[in-house]
Structure formats: structure tokens, C-alpha cells
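Dear colleague,

Following up on Tuesday's group meeting, I ran the structure prediction for the two-component complex that the binding team flagged. I've pasted the input sequences exactly as they went in, so you can double-check that nothing got truncated or mislabelled along the way. The C-alpha cells for the whole assembly follow below. Feel free to forward this to whoever is handling the docking comparison.

Inputs:
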Amino acid sequence: GQQVMQIPQYQHVQEGEDFTTYCNSSTTLSNIQWYKQRPGGHPVFLIQLVKSGEVKKQKRLTFQFGEAKKNSSLHITATQTTDVGTYFCAGRVGTGNQFYFGTGTSLTVIP
Amino acid sequence: NAGVTQTPKFQVLKTGQSMTLQCAQDMNHNSMYWYRQDPGMGLRLIYYSASEGTTDKGEVPNGYNVSRLNKREFSLRLESAAPSQTSVYFCASSRERVGLVTEAFFGQGTRLTVV
């Protein structure tokens, strides 16, 4: 079954508002990745987090990895129309090659 | 560099027909993957190959077979297509570095409809 859950499934925001998506795993993750998929496109890598409690920033995007390495979040400050798409987390368990993708959060930004 | 190339981009099959989805990468990556994407389900791993000559089952392998032909190519075969296999299929590749899997690069996807 699905090991990595993501909420919310959909989010509509006014341009300029903030946005957050949450990723939760039933098991401890060795690392977690985040991807963005534009409508009709393919997933594109954003970032990888490895350490417990790690926080990384990319311009308006802030990524966090939980202390217990079971959850993660992506926060976008002051959304823009270019942020539209579906955001996926993907968690790795142990040292295997498998990444378990979350169900994704579809972001719509209303101009 | 083309990255990850998938063919075909679109396909319609009748129930019971067979077909092979092709994938090739030119980044010299060791690991390659096949995912399917269905609405509300995210991406689910079908099969993966950690290196040339090895393949392993992922979350949803039933009804599929794979071949890692060489380091560049990883194909996915549907022996007897079923409507439940209607989906978007993505191939991806990644590189191991000091025991840490790096980011996956995805192909453009194959939109498969089984009628």
C-alpha cells in the first residue's frame, strides 16, 4: 500500500498568498526528494533532504525534513502563476533504490 | 544531451494486445525505473534496475515485464494489455554517488489507453 501520504490533494490560492504541502510516511525515511510536475509534463527534481531536521531554501521555496525523518513539508511564499503544478514528495526507505512517491498536491494559482 | 527518451508518446491498444515501451538515457546512469501515474495515486514504481543486468519488482509489477538491454536502455512490456493498465507511464534514471541516490530524471511519458 501507499507508504507516503501527502496533504492536501488540491490547493487553490490567490496569487501572492502562501502555500504549504505536507508529506507523511509510516516508516522512517533515509532521505526525501521533492519534484514538481507542470500540467501535461513530467516530474522535475527540486531538492533532496537527507539529515534529520534539515531545512533548505530555494528563493521562495522552503523545504523541511522532520526530526524523526517521517515527515517533510514544502512551503512557497508569495505564490506566482509560474508555481502552478503538482508537487510530489518521494521518500527512500533504507538503502534500496526505491523511492515511494506521495500522492501529490495540485496547486492552482488564481491571478 | 537528450536526457531520457521514451517512445511512443501515445498508444491505444485493444484488450489482450501486447506492446513494448522503450526508454533510453544518455547520462551514463546506473539506475533506471518505470513508473505509472494515475489520477490521485501519484507515481507508483513498476520495476527498477539498479545496474545493467539486474531488475527488481516495485510496488505494482503484475502484468508487466522489463528488460535492461544495456546500460542505456530499459524496456517495459505488456504481454496482454488490460483496461486497468490505462495510465501514463514514465521512465526515469538516476545515478548513485557514494551510496546516495541522486535525483531522478524523467522522460516525457507515454500515454497508454487500453480499450
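Residues 40 and 87 of chain B are 12 Å apart (CA to CA).

Cheers,
M.
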